[in-house]
Amino acid sequence: MRGPGLWLLGRCPLPAGLALSCALPGVEQFEVVLPRRLPGPRARRALPSHTGLYPESVSYVLGAPGHSFTLHLRKNRELLGSSYTETYTASNGSEVTEQLPVQDHCFYQGHVEGHPRSAASLSTCAGLRGFFRAGSAVHLIEPLDGAGETGRHALYQAQHLQQKAGTCGVSDASLDDLLGPRVSAALRPRSRDGPLSRQPRFVELYVVTDSAEFQQLGSRDAVRRRVLEVVNHVDKLYQELNFRVALVGLEVWSHGDKFLVSPHANITLENFLAWRARDLVGRHPHDNVQLITGVDFTGTTVGLAKVSAMCSRDSGAVNQDHSQNPMGVASTIAHEMGHNLGMDHDENVPGCYCPVPRAGGGCIMAASIGSSFPRTFSHCSRADLETFVEKPWTACVANAPDLGRLVGGPVCGNRFVERGEQCDCGPPEDCQNRCCNATTCQLAAGAECAQGACCHECRVKPAAEPCRPQKDECDLEEFCDGQRPECPEDAFRENGTPCRGGYCYNGSCPTLAGRCRDLCGPGARAAAETCFSYSISAGCGVRCGVLFCDGGPQRLERSTCSFTSLSTVCRALATVNGDAYEPVPEGTQCGQEKVCWEGRCQDLHVYRSRNCSAGCHGHGVCNHKKECHCHAGWAPPHCTKLLTDVQAGRWQRARQGWGPRPHTGPLGAIHHPAQPAPQNPGVVGDPEEAAPCCKHIPGRVVRQEGTFPGPQVPPTSEGLCVN
User: Fold this and answer.
1) What range(s) does the Peptidase M12B domain occupy (predicted)?
2) What pLDDT score does 245 carry?
């Protein structure tokens, strides 16, 4: 039979006795089709450098009579960073790292014609391979018998793919430890169905594949192709959150692993992150690292990650390649990266709403995967992410990529405002911004702006309109300036400003009790003064060494060490990595006008604050940059003039030709340096290995609590001082 634009060669269910040529490992039933490539126009804004074997855009017709699909695809020019490297073992046993030149590739993303909110991510390297979503169904396609793009292909729905019943290894206990009590979805901040943030965010991803994965795939080329297919799909999934994921490095271990890859996912994760800290961080810049392993994790676990760890030393996860189809491990990586970005399991949030039923794939942050691949993020995942990206330590994902950081240069439709563009809302089929012309990436007729917290209905908001609320007593509210669509840079009170229980430090008010509640849960508090005397005896300042807590839940995911002093129980909590104890936070008050600084109790003068608020004329306060942060309606730099008066003068001069018209178009993003990850040489081995405890503190009775698997680090009294 022949359908429109294709030939249907037959269905291939897999009953006993079926001819081997019709069998496809791991697939219960499929259709054999011959895709037809459609002639297409020259790609929009295809730059001269975009020439090569694979076109910038391509369309295919595939399917069966009565339900054929037309796929429109565009090359993913954001897939590879320009600093992309590959590290592998040469035939002589030496390690080789190559920085590959800008190269043509065959990985595409797009949509299905006639299906709103559809999506597709495919490779055309050796036939068509990948996924597309149309309506409620997820379809997979792959070549048969090494066929090219017009040869025989298997087309099937995701539920017909046999795969391991998978769960995430992140436990509810560890989520409780890091995220605290769950808030009902009804009480969480509402997030729109569209892109979560007006500011595009960008994850620079490094992927490591272990020797077991290499043995399964058989060659470095096969590993590279599979990893690029995986990252292409992860990037597509995150685009609905206005995130882009670009691969900046691939490391292939073909002749043994650089640490123990254990069937116990928690051990493998700890070893992986320790290796990252001592080896990878110093030699290749990246935001996040993911291990893809061919080792079968125990039980149903297929992935494990550190929660809220993006941009930190623990920004990474381990993932089992558990499915014949690369979409399986891609879904796992998307899930575990979600944990890195502060997302909870959907089941843990009362009232969490997933717009896709489980039978249709469900949502990405479900604790387990069903017979079909997850398709989207739930509303509570969006709320979790929105909360997480406001944290000051998440600046690495706020860095907008430079023009040279992406292979291929500026492209209209990639959601980044680049050279020659006034806006970029994505491909025309995805763009829902009426202020932006998706075809030209220019503002629509009559529009002043297309995005930004100070842009409303294509107009720049008036001066003094709030655009970023005050998060706490050490934060400062920001207001629109009436000229730009972006909210001004996030600012907070000057370090050393008094706050409830202490002094402001980098936008928060650190206290011993607050940190104990964060670590040990509701009801926890700082331990008695006598506990902290051991930090003093070791040469630390008052209350500036190891943190001692009291109260809170009795059962903790991490190990604790406890000892009794003067009838008082003193309890210290091991760090997540198990190689040290939680320290008293920097900036915590340790006396009158004194704070913990570099492990010592020091005078507030270490902040070099100068109370510039006195120069703000009663209409502002001093911020962290030691500049006046003016109250609503007052103009910087000294808050002496009303903002409306200043604006009127600028516009008057512009009309008279005295100066340029105030800028109303999109501005470049502010760049924040990523925080360097601290070095940690610890490696976790056998799960029965002893957790850290303070049994070697002289003259004290000690008991070890918890079950955190960690290295033997028997601290002495000197070990309690955090330097």
Assistant:
1) 201-401
2) 94
168: burial class by Cβ within 10 Å (0-12, 13-18, 19+)?
Answer: buried
* Widest pairwise Cα distance in the chain: 88
Residues 434 and 465 in one domain: no
Q: Looking at the 3D structure of the chain, how many domains does it have?
A: 2
Give the pLDDT score at 373. Answer: 83
Residue 685 lies inside a defined structural domain of this protein: yes
Instruction: Please report the DSSP string for 656-711 in residue order.
Output: TTSSPPPP-S--PPPP-PPPPPPP-------TTSPPP--TTSTT--EEEE------
Give the 3-state secondary structure of residue 291.
Answer: strand
Domain final residue, candidates 447, 473, 500: 447
Whether residues 598 and 651 share a domain: the answer is yes
The one catalytic residue among 149, 251, 336, 582: 336
Specify whether 424 is located in the same domain as 479: no
| pLDDT the model gives residue 535 | 60
Both 443 and 586 in a single domain? no
Domain, as residue range, for 419: 412-447
What pLDDT is recorded for position 70? 93
Is 14 among the domain residues? no
Please indicate if the annotation marks 335 as binding a ligand.
Answer: yes
Tokens of 663: 């800028």
- Asked whether residue 20 is assigned to any structural domain, the reply reads no
At residue 691, the pLDDT reads 30
**Strands 502-503 and 498-499, bridge-based pairing:** antiparallel
Residue 428 and residue 537 share a domain: no
Tokens of 523: 């009801």
339 is in an annotated binding site: yes
Is 111 annotated as a binding-site member? no
Mean pLDDT in order along the chain per 10 residues (723 residues): 38 40 75 88 44 82 79 90 88 86 81 90 92 87 83 87 71 48 42 52 95 96 95 94 93 94 94 94 93 94 92 93 90 96 91 85 85 86 90 79 52 77 85 91 94 92 88 89 87 90 90 87 85 63 81 67 76 72 90 90 84 83 87 85 66 35 31 35 34 36 35 36 42
- DSSP code string of 20-81: GGG--TTBS--EEEE-EEEP-PPPTT--TT--SSS-SEEEEEEEETTEEEEEEEEE-TTSEE
Q: Is 56 labeled as catalytic in the residue annotation?
A: no
Residues 440 and 472 in one domain: no
Alpha-carbon separation of residue 486 from 168, 446, 452, 669 (angstroms): 38, 19, 5, 9
**Domain-located, residue 319:** no
Residue reference for tokens 């002043």: 448
Neighbours of 684 (CB within 10 A): 26
